[in-house]
Specification:
Length: 328
């Protein structure tokens, strides 16, 4: 039974290549995707390995590392932590105005609300008094099955284009008409995301402001098109030292999640299974995990670390103080 649960947000500081192996399409090395939706993801096994690697030189003792992740070279016992695949939450798309916007869709929002309800019992109630923690009604209002509504947008959106009597946004080469009847709900969602997804330090003040005004909710089909066709595809080549030209077979393409993509994963803790660390309760292990990662801040995920790829900033919900308050 898991008693300590957190949402870990992953904010891409550089493009991320969590590869799925060789592809059979036009991209030689595609990224990992969900089988049934084609939405990008990061497998939990790879994510767990990256987190463990980040802890190696962190000053945390090996006994605690083994208690959290399990022993690396034996199957004597399992770790206390369980982690899910990282799911897409917000995807950056080039915009004619405002440089880029973050897009999401009702399906992604509905999943996120279910996951928040799993880790935070207060969100199971629709009591407005709880909405200072999580505005569940605002999130739920964006999951309406309204096929005629192609996009919703914040009323203060920085990517909005006024065109006569209509309002439009231009994402990549697509012009999308906006119906802002739900703007107040989108405002509430954008405000909560900007305050909770991104770190609270002053360095992120600009990005919190941008997320607060540049969030666009598109329909599920449009979102699927963007996350499938608007990723970064990089062509790489291996040059021969002898000839100074491309080696035979040394030309390939790699797919990346673009910088500023935001994903999230559920992190859950049970009591330690190794006898030497059983005195550490699940609360202590979870607290150590969160506080140490909050101190490390940036981890490396996926391939091509030596070329500056895969650097991801982590942030947690609920925050430590907030969680303590909820448990009182």
């Amino acid at each position: 039974m898991f008693k300590e649960k957190k949402i870990m947000f992953l904010i891409a500081e550089t493009p991320v290549h969590a590869g799925s192996g060789s592809g059979i399409g036009v991209i030689d090395l595609p990224i990992q995707r969900e089988r049934h939706t084609d939405f990008p993801k990061i497998e939990s096994s790879g994510l767990k390995g990256c987190l463990r690697d980040a802890f190696k030189d962190s000053g945390v003792g090996q006994t605690i590392i083994n208690a959290i992740f399990g022993p690396e070279n034996s199957g004597d016992y399992a770790g206390a932590m369980a982690i899910t695949d990282a799911r897409i939450l917000l995807f950056p798309v080039k915009s004619l105005k405002g440089v880029f916007a973050w897009i999401t869709c009702p399906m992604v929002i509905e999943r996120f609300v279910r996951d928040v309800m799993m880790i935070d019992k207060n969100t199971k109630s629709e009591n407005p008094a709880n909405e200072s923690q999580f505005p569940i009604r605002a999130f739920a209002s964006l999951v309406k099955d309204d096929k005629s509504q192609k996009a919703k947008i914040t009323s203060i959106c920085g990517v909005l284009i006024n065109s006569g009597n209509s309002k439009k946004i231009v994402l990549e080469e697509f012009s999308i008409e906006v119906k802002d009847s739900e703007s107040k709900e989108v405002d509430g969602v954008a405000g909560w995301l900007s305050e909770n997804v991104l770190p609270s330090d002053s360095f992120y003040e600009f990005w919190r402001s941008k997320l607060n005004k540049d969030l666009v909710v598109v329909d599920d089909d449009t979102f699927a098109q963007f996350v499938s066709n608007s990723t970064e595809v990089v062509t790489r080549v291996r040059i021969s030292d002898e000839t100074g030209t491309a080696e035979g077979g040394g030309l390939w393409t790699e797919e990346y999640l673009p910088q500023d993509t935001i994903l999230y994963s559920l992190v859950m803790f049970r009591n330690a299974r190794n006898s030497s660390a059983q005195s550490e309760g699940n609360s202590t292990l979870c607290s150590t995990f969160v506080s140490k990662l909050s101190e490390i801040r940036v981890i490396q995920v996926g391939g091509n670390a030596t070329t500056g790829k895969g650097f991801v900033r982590v942030n947690f919900y609920p925050h430590q103080n907030q969680n303590k308050h909820q448990n009182q």
